[in-house]
Amino acid sequence: MIRNDVATVITALRAKVRRMLKHPLASNSVWLATSQYIATGVGVLNSIVAARLLGPANYGTVALVMAYPTLLWSFVGIKSVSVTTRYIADFRATGQNEKLRGIVKLGYGLDFFVSVVAFVLVGATSWWVARSIYGMAHLSWLMVGYAASFPFFSLSATSWAILSSRQRFRWLAGLQILQKVITFIITLSLLVAGFGAPGVILGITLGRIITGLTRMGAATYALSRDEVGPWWSASINNVAPLRKELTAFFGWNYLVVTLSGLIEQVPLMLLGRLRSPEEAGFYRLATSLVTVGSYMESSLGKVTYPILSARWGAGERESIKGTLKRWTLQGGLLAGALMLLAIPFLPIVVPIAFGSGYSPMIPSAQVMMVGAAVSSVFFWLNSFYYSSGRINLWAKAYGLYTSFIIGLGWLVIQRWGFFGLAGLVVVGKVLFTLGMVILTYKVTRDLE
Asked: Is the separation of the CB atoms in 58 and 139 below 8 Å?
């Protein structure tokens, strides 16, 4: 009898798992996550080669070179993908192709413009940062070289919005792998040729240029296959009635992008200034490992965003509350558990992959994984606030989160270095995530 009951339970679980995997949310997320892990495998191989050939100090120098241009871009960038995805999904669901083409042209145009502005600003100020902040004046030309990729890589954002909104997740998966493979081949060639740290920067730069152009080509082809028409011939006046709404959305999104740039780059720069390039390299590598572990979360979020946006645009808002609960229980808990299961393997993987010189960063990376696991449970959080138009709430809360990390970071880094910063980041991440989850209940009540 017991044996029969166990068999029945196992059969039921298998059937449930099959149903879950056949669901578009699961299958699309698996495509994206799998491609990210494959791409990450190539990226990690690239990092291993660079870390071993350069050593911790030079590897940290590479991180410092990219930190300032990236930070500056976050100040002028608008991260249009978060805005354009919402409206492209909305216009696609309601069959408004002229508005769709208009928002695509607006997205490409704005991204390209701000990327050129960022490049010019890096060229004008990098000499001062390299000399006065880092104390390494020779890094300025490398910063300018890296920033040269901005105008080309800016084409990726709206291209991603087009492909994800049209459910071309297999295309996106292939493009993610292609980006890492191209970057690895170029970087490895330059390292073998003896170019050192400048070779790594140049390899990454060329990889980003090729990525931007390739994604735009794929997105343009997807629109032509769907008979939407060429986006470049569209009139931006098609979305003129939404000018006020778009201005507010882009404004709040700009604030979020700026804050996210601050919270990603300022702690790294402070470590390089107050401690050493080596600790900055540790932090960069640790955040990269956490990012790898969070790929399932990011993939689920990217798939759910156009889904929520389409439902919101079509007026199907009453079912969202139940959907979020179901996503949390069926996908979020699994994603969080997988993150926690990865923690014990870091002491084994890091020394083998990167060398014993990177062993001091392991405890901090393990701590940071805990914060990422909590965030993974609620993978839909960012997508919900953007698709529902409550981006103002997200931006204000993110501002408090950023102030907490940077405000205390200066003191924490001076006293406890990289390990103290890792603990601070985790505490801030958990408090921010749980606070936004609680606020979600209020927002969903307003839908009833």
From this structure: no
CB 261 within 8 A of CB 71: yes
Could you state, in order of their start, the residue ranges of all structural domains in the chain? 24-447
Closest among 174, 169, 156 to 217, alpha carbons compared:
156
Distance CA 260, CA 288 (A): 15
Cα gap 160→306, rounded to integer Å: 11
Alpha carbons 303 and 324: distance in angstroms, whole number: 13
CB atoms within 10 A of CB 137: 14
How many CB atoms are closer than 10 A to CB 185?
Answer: 15
Q: pLDDT tens digits for 76-128?
A: 766 677 778 878 877 877 778 888 888 888 889 888 998 999 999 999 998 89
Find out whether 288 and 204 touch, Cβ atoms under 8 Å: no
The number of helix segments (H) and strand segments (E) in the chain equals 18, 0
Range list of H helices, 276-390 = 277-293, 295-314, 320-327, 333-342, 346-354, 362-377, 381-387
Which residue in the block uniquely carries the two structure tokens 């919270």?
A: 263
